[in-house]
From TrEMBL, chains A, B:
Origin superkingdom: Bacteria
Domain HTH lysR-type positions: 2-59
InterPro entries in alphabetical order: LysR_HTH_N, LysR_subst-bd, WH-like_DNA-bd_sf, WH_DNA-bd_sf
Family statement drawn from the similarity comment of this UniProt entry: Belongs to the LysR transcriptional regulatory family.
Pfam families listed in its UniProt record: HTH_1 (PF00126), LysR_substrate (PF03466)
GO terms for MF: DNA binding
Full protein name: DNA-binding transcriptional LysR family regulator
Keywords: DNA-binding, Transcription, Transcription regulation
Source organism per UniProt: Lentzea atacamensis
Length: 305, 305
DNA sequence: GTTGAGCATCAGGTCAGCTTATGCTCGACC
DNA sequence: GGTCGAGCATAAGCTGACCTGATGCTCAAC
């Protein structure tokens, strides 16, 4: 194999027209350059520079070699930069914020995929409600967050964020299995006297429930609040009350019955958000992994069971 | 710079899926391959293969690097072959300088032959008078030049040049067809009152005319100057004056009459010159082609028509 | 349990290639 | 025309990269 180091020196010699100058630019002594060029000439079997006491004259072969060789070396340099960039992408750190429901269903699969592809990437996961997580994305403490938004409680996104829709999910009404409303064409008004198990106050899940009931002419009696849908469903199973549960959180606990609302097909949307200006190279991969996992969930829809 | 030898080994390892097999194919010991891969990993700062006792598993980074790297190495191999071919003289670049008359008569045939023999050679042609072309040969900007010299205006060649005679040509006197001197035994004195069309001032063609006329006891009245003998002859045909034209430039335009000088058979010599030290392998082929073409012109003589 | 294949690691030797020193040539400049 | 400096070549010596060979580990196959 032609020695690429020698080739680089040759290109520099042709460019500068002098062994000494090439040596200065490349950090060699002129002796080294002289030896390298001699070695290269020996390798190709042709005199590439005619030497005079004070100067050299490149033969046409040298010009041709320098020409093509220069391109090649540039390509090689480019490759090296690519590799460097890639390595930085592979070993970077990505901080993800996510709401609890997503972290048990969507996120694990996506992270598994991500860390299989990028075994050296460091991925940190924080769990919190969108209201808490978004400020962290804005301040840069998180690179990326999964957030949800209810149809009835639309969010406004700060302009500096990129928002990528991941999936839509139905909202299910859950009642105890022995409840009289455990049939599929339930109307919300039928449940106006029930006690409700809702999300924590201030979450958009709770707001959604309030607005929904308001539209049907009543205010729900909130018996208990939890942001953990497993807890919510256990309470339903225990007969404490009824609840509105997004499909992602649905667990099919014995003693519960889930059904869509008859006349108001309600939806919750899940998005990934990140600052548009964030240049973390892992970002793209993470978003792609999330989208891929979610698309496998029936084209981005999670439907009632 | 990433070590290309290591890169080649990496590509082979990815291809074969094994250090040991790559080592066998590349003529190394497996120890060497192991060390090379370790060094490469150290260089890029990432683990490229997960090691198990009996096997390796390439990380995705290794696959990416091997992919692009393979292309690069292939390009480099291609380059090496190009260089080899060029060195053998199949390829390469030859820069030729020639005076206008030669470039329309002698050179095309020789170049046709040359490029038939060496279809990949790149041949560059520059047209200029010997006075301009010789310095370019000396500085190495041209590999080879065709020059002419008049008997009456001999040239001295710099010592570092090799000069190969190509052909000799007669000088013809051209007069308008209806001129009283349009007979074959004209003497120069008969034309001393004519107006002359000469080559540009400073060319040896012009000097030759001056000296020739001086030998016959007069100074020519120069009506017009051009280095393009086609233009010169058109002017003669138009009755502007008479001219001295080398046989190579003779065009037999209607309205002109050409004849040799009766008592002074004048000649112009055409040579190829190149620096003796020039090692361009195409040089020899080019000179041979030129000689061959010129010898076919009646043993190196171009005679009056 | 034994064997063999694959990989890592260590020690040792070789060689490419660098620097340093020296010499030559030639242009520039007094 | 002598001196000086810059550019190139060459010799000598040293260093570091890298290969081989030896050794050891692990695991699969028999």
């Amino acid at each position: 194999m032609l020695n690429p180091v020698h080739l680089r020196t040759l290109v520099e010699v042709v460019k500068t027209g002098s062994f000494a100058e090439a040596a200065r630019r490349l950090g060699y002594t002129s002796s080294a350059v002289s030896q390298q060029i001699s070695a290269f000439e020996r390798a190709v079997g042709v005199t590439l520079f005619e030497r005079e006491a004070h100067s050299i004259r490149p033969a046409s072969a040298a010009l041709l070699i320098a020409d093509r060789g220069g391109e090649l070396l540039a390509a090689f340099d480019g490759f090296e930069h690519e590799v460097k960039a890639m390595v930085q992408g592979l070993r970077g750190r990505l901080r993800i914020g996510t709401f609890p429901t997503a972290s048990s269903r969507v996120v694990p699969k996506a992270l598994a995929k991500l860390s299989a592809d990028l075994p050296d990437a460091e991925i940190l996961l924080d769990e919190a409600e969108p209201e808490d997580v978004l400020p962290l994305v804005l301040t840069g403490e998180l690179d990326l967050a999964l957030v949800y938004a209810y149809d009835l409680v639309p969010r406004t996104w700060p302009e500096e964020l990129t928002v990528v829709p991941l999936l839509e999910e139905s909202l299910l009404v859950m009642v105890p299995a022995d409840h009289s409303a455990a049939k599929n064409n339930v109307k919300l008004e039928d449940l106006k006297d029930e006690r409700w198990i809702a999300s924590r106050d201030g979450t958009s899940g709770a707001t959604c429930l309030t607005r929904l009931c308001a539209a049907s002419g009543f205010a729900p009696r909130i018996a208990f609040r939890s942001n953990d849908y497993e807890v919510v469903q256990s309470l339903v199973a225990a007969g404490v009350g009824v609840a509105l549960v997004p499909a992602l959180g649905y667990k099919a606990l014995p003693g519960t019955h889930a059904m869509p609302l008859r006349h108001k097909p309600l939806r919750r949307h899940v998005h990934v958000v990140h600052r548009t200006a964030n240049t973390n190279p892992l970002l793209r991969d993470a978003v792609n992994a999330l989208r891929e996992v979610c698309e496998n969930a029936v084209g981005g829809y999670i439907n009632p069971p």
